[in-house]
Amino acid sequence: MQVALFIPCYIDQFYPQVGIATLQLLEKLGCDVSFPLEQTCCGQPMANSGFASLSKGCDANFVENFSGFDYIVAPSGSCVLHVKEHLQDAAHPEKAANIRKNVYELTEFLTDVLKVEKLQARFPFKVGLHNSCHGQRGLHLSSMTETMTPSFSKPEQLLNMVTDIRLSKPKRNDECCGFGGTFCVFEEAVSVKMGKDRVAEHDDNEVDYISGGDTSCLMHLEGILKRQGSKIKTIHIAEILNSSL
């Protein structure tokens, strides 16, 4: 199958190793991966701040770059959800609709499309799993405690295939870390307090790493950890799933 790799702008600029790990992992699993070179921001920052009309150029560019692929995969639940729910192109409405239908977050693609049952990966560390809001509540990558439905987690399902990993969860397993995109800029104090609460619960579990499917959330937590002088590190789930035996 032909897969187009969608790498969000903040990953491209600050965490390129996440994009590389995603590419290598998909190729290991037999995908024919392409990386459209003219891709840019998906437009989520503008839309989240109330300026959706300013993202039309991003939409048109996204459609131009990602049309014609069987699947589009990204290591970011928030950007994927934005594309799924908001991508529009007046000049090419059918192409935009097809993209919205075929864009997937990485763990969603691995479990639902590739139906991965085993991985040749090893990560001998204790890892605290963070559920990002967009992935959990928007893409339904994991169950929500308030719905009282059977428990499931696509990221956890994949991490359990990794040799020697020790997984842990915070007490409030599906609570927001406080990043929220532009929220962390406009409501800095609230955002930081929420992040500190998340970090404290992982710290209590004595984890080596905090991992998840959204680098944006991990970036927020990483900043708090560094300011606290913590030894805990953050790592995207793609880097763990791509780790070598």
From TrEMBL:
Residues 3-83, 127-221 form the Cysteine-rich domain. GO terms for molecular function: oxidoreductase activity. GO terms for cellular component: cytosol. Transmembrane segments: none annotated. It comes from the Bacteria. This is (Fe-S)-binding protein.
